Amino acid sequence: MPSPVAEPVVTVVPAEFSAGVPAHVESTGPPDAPLTVVLLHGWTLDGRIWRRQRVALHEAYGDRIRVVTYDARGHGRSGSAPLPSATLAQLGDDLARVLEQAVPSGPVVLAGHSMGGMTIMEYAHRHPGAFADRVAGLLFVSTTAEGHTHTEYGLPAPLARLVRIAETAGAGVLARCGSCRPPSLLMRVLRPSLRWLLFGTECASDDVRLAGSAVSRARMCAIGGLRPSIGAQHRLDTLAALGDVPAAALVGDRDRLTPPACAESIADALPTTELTVCPGAGHMLMLERPDEVNTALRAVTARALEPHLALTG
């Protein structure tokens, strides 16, 4: 199992989403680094899931890069927000706002896990000019451009349809629960289910606890409110219009939420994408398969750094 990691020095960057919603943004590395890597977490999670990638990037590139993570609205240490703002479109606008405040200039690599990858696609769709000007590389981890088209929870199709109906109904209930968080007793009861849903054949107990801790910090209205737009999103056309931006996509072959077909369709739509399928892995590749994720992220980052290295070399 992966060994514990030592985090680089973290700076909290003052920032907010729209309507004064506080945004918890963290930065490591020099503000004037020639390249910034922005890491976006998935639905119900928070920025801590990228801890090993943040360390790996600084070990590889030192002061040549800056790494920024943030908790999406209604998640982690960011503020809650009204239910109508719990949409992927709003998250795409939130990414644009975080970049304006925390990374106002210079090229960026965007890396997104699950909902984070979908957020990147929304940013590309809603802010195409800014995307073209700023984005020098992309990493998609366990994500999709087709909503729940391929999601069958690792179950036979009839049973998967029943689970989706139950999940959709449950999301509707959670959406009406306001800014409260899941009770700790409920999280303890759900831990085996989270382990089954999010992880593959092998995982460390500390990683399961981290995932559960992240879910326990998410606001009920964000968990429930975001579900409809996550299920409905279709952005293959957006990806196809991105041109020759360096990209990579990773997926576990035991991923019950975004199975390999999701990553394959991303790679088909964006031909610059290097596709990696991780045997035996589930949805939480940053924790389950950090070496593979780190390798792909370093490769995209290296390509994004090439123009700067040519100028300084």
From TrEMBL:
| Keywords noted in UniProt | Hydrolase
**Record keyword Hydrolase present:** yes
- Organism phylogeny: Bacteria, Bacillati, Actinomycetota, Actinomycetes, Micromonosporales
Residue span(s) of domain AB hydrolase-1? 37-294
Recorded protein name is Alpha/beta hydrolase
GO molecular function annotations of the record: hydrolase activity
InterPro entries, per this entry? Answer: AB_hydrolase_1, AB_hydrolase_fold, AB_hydrolase_sf, Epox_hydrolase-like
